[in-house]
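Suppose you are handed a protein chain with no further information: no name, no annotation, nothing but its sequence. What can you learn? This example shows the usual starting point.
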Amino acid sequence: MLSNHLYLTVLNGASGDYSIALPIVERAMAMTRTPAGSRFPQRICVREDQIRIWVGVDPAGYAAGIEAGIAMMEAELPEESYCRSCLMAVRTRYAFELGRWDETWALLEETLTTRLLPQELPALHTQLCLVAWRRGDWEGLRHWAAEGVASSRTSDMAACLAECTAWQAVLARRDGDEPAAQ
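A reasonable first move is to predict its three-dimensional structure. Written in structure tokens, the prediction is:
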């Protein structure tokens, strides 16, 4: 089951190949329902894998399963568990994929109040930028783009730096400052 979880982590990450991941996660979830599987410490991680895959495949179609999985994770995870960050991440992605911008914004702001590693901030800032843009919150976008540039430089995260710099260019163009947009 652990090897399935690790493989699913890869499939959920860079590849995003849900056609391969879906049958694997279904088998892994069936194993978590056995007596031995119910004692497997990473069974919650396998549930998270399943939620991530369902959100990637069809968040509206799998809504009942996603919401049940989120409720199970909330009930089983100890309050002080670092795994709560995984729960927050799946809740946020689910809201994002459904276009629930205000809910996504609230979840991202809540994430800012949790224990974050410095290298996690740049990606969080890029997410805040995207949601601010979706909400038409230009001042929020301005703020989080600047924060993202700063955190990306501190953490040496080139992709996040490029994204936040691009958001600053979008704002400059919106403000009519073409030289700054260039």
